[in-house]
Write a structure and sequence with these properties.
DNA-binding, mainly alpha, DNA-binding (chains A, B), WH-like_DNA-bd_sf (chains A, B), Arc Repressor Mutant, subunit A, elongated, 6% strand, DNA-binding transcription factor activity (chains A, B), HTH-type transcriptional regulator (chains A, B), 2 domains, transcription (chains A, B), homodimer, three-stranded mixed beta sheet
Chain lengths: 198, 198
DNA sequence: CATATAGTTCAAGACCGCGTGAACTGCACC
DNA sequence: GGTGCAGTTCACGCGGTCTTGAACTATATG
């Protein structure tokens, strides 16, 4: 987790194709970055985590924290924390340009995989907990006695419902994984001329 | 939306089977109610909406706003608003006991259907919006010109990815519906000896 | 009509998560 | 050692959401 060397295109070319890092995003970039932010927020992460990843992905070349700070209008501290989260999840990579002292960050293409993974864990743990609660309730209800059987049946039904939802959820994640996998192939080869290996 | 008459079991029986409405939930009830609250919150609704529905469902017989207020330790105003939401969504029903002046509220069994429905709408609208944003970004990028083609391709890939996610999502909702439908049958007949007919 | 109780509405406040910015650490270069 | 910059940490404040509680309306009862 110490970062890698960045051996991308020559530094001179960066100013020829696009506003280099004059501080303000191109409108189309802003829209796309915002879109990623919305998606990521929708899935329960921080909007800015998505914006940072989106920017890095769109640019294709590694950016410094300072550049990110300017482009997305975030604070120094904020960027630091966001980058740390993203790096820990393996969706960005810390790279060092030879004979330059600052770290740069590049987008991995694993964002989708990460999202499905985290969501999977979250939902699974959640549904499991619910089922545990419900059976605990049922146990207690039986223990105290005097609870009319039709109420016990209600508890049981809620539990089986939870089970079914759980199964549907797992199925979703699996198919979604499969469905997305195909796209990911094409997705990946456009990011950096290199592939993730975690 | 004016409510229906409640012609359930005789009023005398209510005090024989369980703590009638002494103000505090039985422990097993509390757990179950809380579980429903958690689920509902998980899906983006208010926790207390779930708790109210859960209580009504578990009790099986219609409760007054005052009873709900005491059992769940909520404020008068809060209960009023929660009930209004739930009623508007068709997951509870307002009933009137003959020759009694207060409204009572009974759980419908459509909670699951409502959740899937709302979630479906929400996600669908969301994903659609994302796709629109992305193609807008692409349009703008092409319009300004000078944007390197590999960046345009990135935008395209993000859009197709969104499409695939959308498809997976729809599939999930459909199968989940189907999967849950079976349970719903059993689920339903235990709530009230009556079916919704809105 | 007066009174009491059920029900609604809404401004004020509690609460919570996120980002900020300042203080701090670490490192390179002079 | 000192200066400057990259990067980290964290107490605080802002903005949002949810709940409360009090004022208000509606409705039944004598």
């Amino acid at each position: 987790m110490k970062g890698y060397l960045w051996t991308g295109g020559d530094p001179g070319s960066q100013s020829t194709v696009a506003p280099p890092d004059n501080g303000r995003l191109a409108p189309w970039e802003a829209i796309a970055v915002e879109a990623v932010g919305n998606v990521i927020e929708f899935w329960g992460f921080k909007r800015n985590q998505g914006r940072v990843w989106g920017l890095l992905y769109l640019r294709g070349e590694p950016l410094t924290a300072g550049e990110i700070e300017r482009e997305l209008d975030l604070s120094k501290g904020g960027v630091s924390m966001l980058l740390r989260d993203l790096e820990r999840w393996g969706v960005i990579q810390r790279v060092r340009v030879p004979q330059d002292t600052v770290w740069r960050y590049a987008a991995e293409t694993d964002l989708v995989r990460m999202v499905t993974h985290v969501v999977e864990e979250r939902e699974a743990a959640f549904v499991t907990r619910i089922r545990a609660d419900l059976s605990e309730a049922r146990r207690l209800a039986e223990a105290v006695g005097g609870v009319p059987p039709e109420r016990l049946r209600k508890l049981e039904r809620m539990a089986t419902l939870a089970e079914h939802v759980e199964r549907a959820l797992r199925l979703f994640i699996k198919t979604s994984r499969l469905d997305v996998a195909g796209v990911l192939g094409a997705f990946r080869d456009g990011a950096l001329g290199r592939k993730g290996e975690r």
